[in-house]
Task: structure prediction
Amino acid sequence: MKICIVIDDYLPHSIKVGAKMVHELACELVKRGHFVSVITPSPNLKTDYSIEKLDGVVVYRFKSGKIKNIGRVRRAVNETLLPYLAWNALKDNIAKDRHDIVVYYSPTIFWGSLVTKLKRLWDAPSYLVLRDIFPQWAVDRGLIKKGSLIEKYFRYFERKNYEAADTIGLMSQKNLEWFKENVRSDARLEVLPNWAALTPASSDGTYRKKLGLENRVVFFYGGNIGQAQDMMNIVRLAKRMQKYPEAYFLLVGAGDEVELVKRAVTEEKIENLTLLPPVPQDEFKKMLSEFDIGLFTLHRDHSTHNFPGKLLGYMVQSMPILGSINIGNDLKETVEGAGAGFVTVNGEDDLFFDNARKLLDREKREEMGKKAFALLEKNFSVEAAANKILEKAVNR
Result:
């Protein structure tokens, strides 16, 4: 079977969890004997497009504007142009290369027109891996005014994105229920959890030595440092944990709250927190292997129920999870039900703090870390994700 995957960010240069997940899926499909191609933008290309091979996956890159870590207006314009740039650059190549299924990943919400063209061209079914229900979370946060022209603009493309899908895979049961209640769609809906390959990394302690953290219990956060996460939630926790000299917080990533975090650390004299810029995926996996506790946070105002992909990286390395969620998110049941960590609602600062203190105990960390890996193995394997997607291609 020939499978085409469309995503707005891909390895080897990407630092995003989505890029890593999709590459692991592509590699799993290649391992099973399928031909896999990926269509993805590349702002740094000198030509209109390039074709390369990465771990057996054929990667079509097309030249685009920047869509990561830039201003909102510029990002919206550049993302809107993605399907048109992709088609214009690659149509001569992909028109003669029929595929049997199109898999596309959201974010972004702008792939609808490209996927519709590919479906018609190849008479192929499509599967939307929906990881981010935008613009809903931005409306929830007040970043986009409900009923405004900008909301209507994004809603138009969101609708086109859903209309292009024959099947939509949502990351949790709560998200699926929310989607059914709030979105009109003729697509088949199912739960498709995030996934990861069960291949832990190893390290020689380089980062602990480099950062002077050999004798510290490190709470590690890797990923987007943005408004959807509410990073001040972690800053408040770090400030309270200063009374425990062994506790240290390491944040690695980029986003629109980086300067906010830096300013708070300086102004409030928080001495147990370091914020580092993003690193390549190989280096990121080595970091994960060295540290003790996996952190995540979600803004309390979300009405949808995200499952951050970063949790899978933590689970792969048998790290206990410490997290904070929006009300109603079923992540609490998933993580705490498996004994893999502690999860509180964002705003329950005292309980968040108490749970962090509990994880200063080595035995507790080791016990929960083992259960975190077991949870990954049972429910979030890349093999299970590949099975679900292929099943929909066969039974269209």
Q: What stands out?
A: Residues 2-196+382-394 form a domain with the Rossmann fold fold (CATH 3.40.50.2000).
